[in-house]
Amino acid sequence: MESKWHEIELRVRYSETDAMQVVYHANYLNWFEIGRTEMMRNTGAPYRELEEAGILLPVIEARAFYHSPARYDDLIIIRTRLTEARVKVKFEYEIVRQSDAQLLVNGYTVHAWVNRDMKPIQLRKAAPEIYNAILGFLTEN
């Protein structure tokens, strides 16, 4: 089961580019996080509420596949969707340039539900209201 794509626009800042005048590769992972954070806010389970409830979602795997560079002042669209939401959570990403719809990067991150002691938890049991909000987001989209 996967959700629809959640989209957010971002303009490439000068500080995100390198000596080759393209976006430094690590910034794409930062943009993945921006997309993920905003998507979680839209599920009704924003990171702030998760953390206040003692639930953390650390990244345990990250992959990015580079297709074309982004450059200073490009307007990009960060697309994020949730594709797994059980013991592990998987988010998929696409970053495209708005002007020509060119795919710049795609990838994914995998996360684990853990408590403050970094011990794995079952979200369905630990926080059923949060689990149901995420499940509802998946099924309605």
From TrEMBL:
<dbReference type="InterPro" id="IPR029069">
    <property type="entry name" value="HotDog_dom_sf"/>
</dbReference>
<dbReference type="InterPro" id="IPR050563">
    <property type="entry name" value="4-hydroxybenzoyl-CoA_TE"/>
</dbReference>
<protein>
    <submittedName>
        <fullName>Thioesterase</fullName>
    </submittedName>
</protein>
<dbReference type="InterPro" id="IPR006684">
    <property type="entry name" value="YbgC/YbaW"/>
</dbReference>
<dbReference type="GO" id="GO:0047617">
    <property type="term" value="F:fatty acyl-CoA hydrolase activity"/>
</dbReference>
<comment type="similarity">
    <text>Belongs to the 4-hydroxybenzoyl-CoA thioesterase family.</text>
</comment>
<keyword id="KW-0378">Hydrolase</keyword>
<dbReference type="Pfam" id="PF13279">
    <property type="entry name" value="4HBT_2"/>
</dbReference>
